[in-house]
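Session log. Operator J.P. requested a structure for one protein chain; no other inputs attached. Running the standard single-chain path with token output.
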Amino acid sequence: MANVVLLGIVYLAFISLGLPDGVTGVAWPAMRIGFGEPLESAGLITLVVTGFSAVSGFASGAVLQRLGTGPVVAISGLLTGMALMGFAWAPSLVWILVLAVPLGLGSGSVDAGLNHFVARHYSARHMNWLHGCWGVGASIGPLVMGAALAQPGGWVDGYRRIASVQLMLATVFLLTLALWKRAPAPASGAAADSGAAPGRAAVPAWAVWTGPVLYLLYATVEIGTGLWAASILVEQRGLAPRDAGWWVSCFYAAIMTGRFALGMVAVRLGNRRLVHAGLAVALLGASLFAAPGLPPTLTLVGLVLLGLG
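Structure written below.
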């Protein structure tokens, strides 16, 4: 029973990780007017968040070894929750950039730590479902912010609501720290083994880097789309901010749907086929979303296909 509850906490932690990811992109068209900033300033916020997330990710090995996965998850929730609450009170872009530092630091180590934890203790199916839970959080965030933009409190209330949820989740993580000491034994085949499997040819050194390079490409597309899709839909395609938030949520929901579906077939299809299919669908979606002069419906379908791919 404890293992089932722990797995639920792990999934909940990845929902928490995804909650802030699409929010700034949805809020920025309204935020920038209040701050008197140009549209492109949103790139600075993402640069700071992503940069410090990378720093935290690179340091995750030492941090996790010293503190353990459970405490890192709880600290991450507190850091991101307080940073998001600070966004609601920030009087200028400068303060947003300052608060982006703990927001980034709070996500890097927990992302790496949970990926390692699930890869070690659970199957590939659970890994896909784990990232599907990130999609749950990333879908909820834009929905909450989009709804807030249609109300008098605007983006300020949106950040307050999301920060409150994040802090409540952090409290849950703090109260369940003891469960992490009861983690199941490493899953079959998950033990760290640096050598090639018997009967399998060694992988060339250059081929090992295709994974990080593809992931770099993937992260660029995901982060860039999440940041700019709402601004494109509002300022170039004429959608209302609330509707733009809904469609950005659909983009993340498509990512979530794809990951949960793949959790059922990942072992049967294999990684290579999944990567090829994902690249093809994402390329089709990006082409539809970017092409000028298409009917609005096709543009929005393209955004959803991009997320699915």
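Operator note: The radius of gyration is 20 Å.
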